[in-house]
Design brief:
- The protein is of the alpha+beta class.
- It has helices at about 1-5, 55-70, 85-115, and strands spanning about 10-20, 25-35, 45-50, 125, 130-135.
Length: about 150
């Protein structure tokens, strides 16, 4: 081990272990060298291990979803089966965020397409949480340009 060889504390070391069945497990290790008084070389190392397989799997899924979202793909979701506690809540929250972004971007895309084709008659989005209202009108009376749905001054 590095801590025994160097005499230095090793914290947060992530190690992947592949079993004979091909399944990977992930372990977080922390190692602290033990010294006899007046000696500079460690005689032993105290090491703790924590199974972080579930955390690593969620981290990998989140990375894939974020990469896809950055490329404009909001269709991917994190599977909730086998997850519990914080990992379940985190996964569920990211899925809800992706759902919300897909709806919002779909509506904005539809509005922009309608504006480009000058066929927007009415469009409104209301989000109850923030009480935000976005309204857009349709073509002006002569069929040109864009007329908002509210009166002009």
């Amino acid at each position: 081990m590095v801590a025994l060889r160097t005499g230095k504390v090793q914290s947060g070391v992530v190690v992947g272990i592949q079993g004979r069945d091909g399944v990977s497990n992930w372990v977080l290790m922390n190692s602290r060298p033990m010294f006899h008084p007046e000696e500079t070389a460690p005689y032993a190392v105290l090491t703790s291990f924590a199974d972080i397989t579930e955390r690593q799997a969620v981290q990998d899924e989140v990375t894939r979803i974020v990469d896809a979202a950055m490329a404009g793909d909001f269709s991917r979701r994190i599977g909730l089966d086998g997850k519990s506690g914080f990992m379940h809540a985190l996964s569920e929250g990211i899925n809800k965020l992706a759902d919300t972004m897909a709806v919002v971007l779909g509506e904005v895309s539809a509005m922009m397409a309608a504006m480009a084709g000058r066929r927007l008659i009415s469009f409104s989005v209301v989000t109850t949480r923030w009480q935000t209202i976005l309204e857009a009108g349709g073509p002006d009376r002569e069929g040109r340009g864009f007329a908002p749905p509210w009166p002009h001054r």
